[in-house]
Design brief:
It is built from 2 helices and 11 strands; from the N terminus they run H-E-E-E-E-E-H-E-E-E-E-E-E. It is an alpha+beta fold and 237 residues long. The protein has one domain.
Length: 237
């Protein structure tokens, strides 16, 4: 009399199958993890590149539209000869920050008492929560502020917001066509540059991306500096 035995897997076959399945699962999980890491890195690099491009667009628009502010009428001007310009100029640039007046203001709401004129400022800042870490690592953020109110203090006003993070260094230089050279500072309250904008501004940024230092640079022309020399009254060039 023949006995019927139920067919099945042996313990060794089960162990081998589970080992193969575990190996495939681990390999699949590793490949997916690497793919996700590459995707996140690519998205981060794209965001950083887009942020730098956006910041450069802001800088280009603001600087190219740099313009003077109309002077208030002087008291007793009817009885005196006033040979001064009709404008006053705000442009205070240093190697790591820049403050000036521009015609780049955009009215976001109707019936607001704003013009195209505004104060603009760019500077490196550290975040309040990681200020010490930022100072130790040498990483900062480039901020932009804009105020539609132009007053005597050109370095204050408006709420700053961050344009670019993970910046190691920013450098501004200013070109004088009159002297045909670049300067590291430009102050319209000083005699040599009084009531004069630079004809161009050079910007260099060193940004930390994936633990690498990447340099970006550009030169921006001031569209209408209005730096013509003032002619004495009654004389023509």
């Amino acid at each position: 009399m023949k006995k019927n035995f139920q067919s099945g897997f042996t313990l060794i076959e089960v162990i081998v199958a589970m080992s193969i399945f575990s190996f495939i699962a681990m390999a699949t999980a590793t490949a997916i993890g690497r793919g996700m890491a590459v995707k996140k890195r690519a998205e981060r690099e794209w965001d950083e590149t887009h942020g730098i491009r956006t910041a450069m667009n802001f800088l280009t628009r603001d600087i190219s539209l740099a313009f003077h502010v109309k002077k208030p009428a002087a008291e007793g001007a009817f009885f005196t000869q006033d040979h001064s310009r009709w404008f006053k100029t705000y442009f205070n640039g240093r190697s790591d920050q820049l403050h000036f007046t521009s015609l780049s203001n955009r009215r976001l709401y109707d019936n607001t008492h704003e013009s195209e004129g505004c104060e603009v400022g760019y500077a490196l800042i550290s975040s309040s929560e990681k200020e010490r870490d930022s100072e130790k690592s040498g990483q900062y953020s480039l901020s932009r502020r804009k105020s539609p109110i132009i007053d005597e203090d050109q370095e204050k006003g408006g709420e700053p917001f961050i344009l670019i993070e993970h910046i190691k260094e920013v450098q501004f230089k200013y070109y004088s066509q009159k002297k045909d050279r670049w300067f590291e500072e430009w102050d319209t309250s000083k005699r040599d540059t009084e009531d004069r904008f630079p004809e161009a501004v050079e910007i260099k940024l060193i940004v930390l991306q994936n633990q690498k230092e990447i340099e970006y640079s550009t030169k921006i022309m001031v569209a209408n500096p209005n730096n013509e020399e003032l002619q004495p009254q009654g004389q023509t060039p």
